[in-house]
Amino acid sequence: MAIVSLRDLGLDRLSIEERLQVADAIWDSVVHEVEMSPLPEWQRAELERRLADSMANPDAVRPWGDVEAEALARAKR
Asked: In whole angstroms, how far apart are CA 35 and each of 10, 42, 48?
């Protein structure tokens, strides 16, 4: 598969705002296709394993807000 450049597609002539709109449209199309694709069985099994583990060990799970606050505090030091 050949790599296509912005120049090849004529995108280098677009304004920054127009290029951002194109990038957003491309991203949306990728997200849509990924969302429509079924999970591979190995990934589904791993998600189920992690869910079961977190339900069996609720004390081992930390709320995201706690993790985020700790990370931000460390970053400010």
From this structure: 29, 17, 18
Domain coordinates in residue numbering, the chain: 9-38, 40-77
User: Please, are residues 27 and 21 in contact by the beta-carbon 8 Å criterion?
Assistant: no
Count of residues in the chain: 77
Alpha-carbon distance of 19 to 9, in angstroms, equals 12
Per-residue pLDDT tens digits of the chain, which is 77 residues long: 789 999 999 999 999 999 999 999 999 999 989 888 888 999 999 999 999 999 999 888 889 999 999 999 999 98
